[in-house]
Amino acid sequence: MQFHKYHGLGNDYIVIDPAEFSAMLTPEVVRRICDRNYGVGSDGILFGPLETGGRFVLRIYNPDGSEAEKSGNGLRIFSRYLWDTGRVSDVPFAIDTTGGRVTARVHEGGKLVTVEMGRVSFAATDIPVEGEEGEVLGRTILVDGREYTYSAATVGNPHCVVTGEEVNADLAKTVGPIIEKDRRFPNRTNVQFLEVIDRENIRIEIWERGAGYTLASGSSSTAAAAVARRLGLCGNRVTVHMPGGTLALSFTDDFSAVMTGPVAAVCDGVLREELLGGGEKLKVDL
Question: Is the distance from CB of 159 to CB of 223 less than 8 angstroms?
């Protein structure tokens, strides 16, 4: 059974085409494949294309086996895979996810992809955020006795953007997992720690729901840039700087977002039955 591995700014995904995969893609199988010690290793699995009526349908799985509604890097990678397999050309095409339909376009010979991510909402009922009303901007959350300022947004999946802190990886790794599972976020949440460099540049560190600390994220970049713009800290065009590299974001007046960034092919391979079946733990007597 075939797999295809790509990365977007160090955020790596495995593409599994249903036409090349005869096993059941259960949460347990997802976890095995994504495990970096016992499997292939990745930040998630892109399962598609599930073609229905001429449309491309994509399912996105986190390495913990849960399903994600949308992933910016995942959508760019999936678009590149469609390009590599001759299913699309350099004209725009639609992809359906559980977080909504997006329009993508592959250019620069497949190395650069633009995705229309949809409209960003800050409304508590859309994200959702329990116990809040209206737009969730400049609210506070208590973590281990310390108060943090955050704003929340949805790009088809939930995000919590923390502002006013010195941004670093340690902060994302320690505070991120606590906020991810805070009870005000019934579906859990992705967490970004935002630093505004100037009106055209921001820096973020990311803790991804179901994946953990990641070098880059397209939906996180979109949410963080949208929050910065909504708070009046940036304009309509923002470059998002992450440990893995940069993405370009632009917004219309109603906060519809367009993201552009690179994709790189890594390898193709074959998944063995022993991995998918889990195998037996052998006891060795000496």
Answer: yes
Over the chain (286 residues), the average pLDDT of each successive run of 10 is 96 96 92 95 95 84 96 97 95 94 94 96 98 97 97 97 95 98 97 98 97 96 98 97 98 97 97 79 53
User: 224 and 255 in contact (C-beta within 8 Å)?
Assistant: no
d(CA 112, CA 148): 36
Sheet of strand 59-61, all strands in order from the earlier edge strand to the far edge: 67-68, 59-61, 45-47, 11-16, 2-8, 264-270
Domain 2-111+264-277 belongs in CATH node 1.10.10.10: no
Q: Where are the domains of the chain?
A: 2-111+264-277, 119-260
Measure CA of the first residue to CA of the last residue in the chain; give whole Å.
36
Please name every residue paired with 133 in a beta bridge, in sequence order, or none if there are none: none
Identify whether the C-beta of residue 205 lies closer than 8 Å to the C-beta of residue 171. Answer: yes
